[in-house]
Specification:
There is one protein chain. It is built from 2 helices and 11 strands. The chain has 149 residues and is α+β, with helices and mostly antiparallel strands. It has one domain: Alpha-Beta Complex (Nucleoside Triphosphate Pyrophosphohydrolase). Strands 1, 2, 3, 4, 6, 7, 9, 10 and 11 form a 9-stranded mixed β-sheet that branches. Strands 5-8 form a two-stranded antiparallel ribbon.
Amino acid sequence: MERTERVILTNLCMICDGTRVLVEEKIGRDAGGIIFPGGHVEPGEPVTDSVIREMKEETGLTIESPKLCGVKEWINGDGSRYVVFLFRADRFSGELASSAEGRVFWVEKEDVLKTDWIWHMDALMQIMSEGEFTELFLDAADGWNPVLK
């Protein structure tokens, strides 16, 4: 039995500053609402290094000691697996700056789900801020309904 599969690795990070969290209003192909900043893991790049790099590129901030909270994943139509490593960080330095990926700005954590959010932000908040779950699996066979584990 073959145990290898094609995988796309990405990351998201909830950067916390007291009661506020940093969000991004994505533009481009996946436009349409608010999400945490993130991006792809480059070939051969450690996952934690990727989230530090992506936060610098998309927010202007250098995060320190990001903590892995969980994963979001699904199986694409071509059979490849898409994995999003979910991080949280509360130590950072630098000046906040938006990028070509979208505008970044602070929102009170309690108000995140009152924004025009995308990509199952409600489930992501349960993993990244509440810690009740560690995995969000989206199942195409079930109409892409999110399953928290």
